[in-house]
Structures are given as structure tokens and as C-alpha cells.
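Homework help board

Subject: predicted structure for assignment chain

Our instructor gave us this sequence and asked us to write out the predicted structure in C-alpha cell form, then describe one feature. I got the C-alpha cells but I'm not sure how to describe them. Can anyone check?
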Amino acid sequence: MTKENILKVAINEFSLYGYDAVSMNKLASKLEVNKATIYYHYKDKKSLYHAVLTKLIRQNRDQVEELVNSDIPAKEQFRNYIALFIETIKETPQIIPLTLREMANLGINIQDHIEEDLEQEVKYLVSILQKLNLKEKYKDTDPYIIKALILGTTTTYYSMQMSNVNVKTIKNLNKDSDTVLDYVNDFISDILLDGLCEDTKNIK
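My C-alpha cell output:
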């Protein structure tokens, strides 16, 4: 039983039931191993949970870093930054419930090293924003509110679309995960660039 196998099952269990409801006994049963096997790789549940969060936050970090250091136009960088976030969700949709749970709990289970990872993600966004021709009134905008617009819109709209609650007035995207995420991707990119930038015409 490898660390990656444990992590894969843990991601699913934490996303389904939340941190408090997942026990190491339940996890061991799901993995069909004894608890000692899990403890060999992770000293306790909190360590395992933070390994889960770290893996998800860093999932496409290399591509984001490469994007930020590239010579492509700033608007295209911004679009691709959002697209990489969307791609992460496509690869691991468990990010949505995990994110919503932590937001609802006000990050009670977050430790310092996770905060450092989150700060690094925003630094990448800041690097891109500095290259955009922002409207004067948005030049001093807190980058975390832009990050919140991206994260919040994606997680909330995805949850609304994929919910078992059928709201007839919502756009019919057939509960197809990729279709929903592509729709959100285009919308967020367009509306943020239109709103934030001076040169709203000829957006690439």
C-alpha cells in the first residue's frame, strides 16, 4: 500500500464526509489495510488531511509557474491561469466539496504550511494582474477578492449545476461536469477582463 493509494482514497473520503466524520478506522476499512499501514506513512489524521490539501493546491503548480514566466500576452495569461484552475477541478472534482467545507468552517482545519501554499497561488495571480492594463480604480484592488471571485463563482455555480435539486430557471448544461466547467471558465475570464481592464476591446 503506497502513500499515493492512501492519498487517493483519503481525498475521496474527506470530500464526501468532511474532516471530522472521517476516522482512521473507516479509512483503513476502505483501503482494506490495518491502521498501522496508514500510520507508517502519515503520523495522524491531521497530517493525512494536510497532505490531501497540499496535493490539491499544488496539483498544477508547475504549469502555473511556467505560465507566469512565459512571454504570452497578459490577457492570455489571465485566461490560462483560470483555465488551469478549471483543469485541476476536472482532474479532481473532489476539490469542490473540500473547498466549500473549509470555507464554511472558516479554515478551522488549515495549518500554517497550507497558508503558505495559498499565498503562493495568489502571488502568481498578482504577477499576472500587474501586467494587465487595469482601470485606475482597480489598480489597488486586493488580489484575494479577485481570487475569491474565481474560486467562489466556480465552486458555487458548479454545485448549483450538479445538484440533485432541479431548478428549472437555471441554464440546462445536462449536469455534464466538463460542460459546466468550460462554461464557467469562459464566463469568468470574459467578465473579469471586461470589468478590470481599460482596453476591453480586442480581448484575445
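Reply (TA_rk): Your C-alpha cells look well-formed. For the description, you could write something like this. The chain has a mean pLDDT of 91. That's the kind of observation they're looking for.
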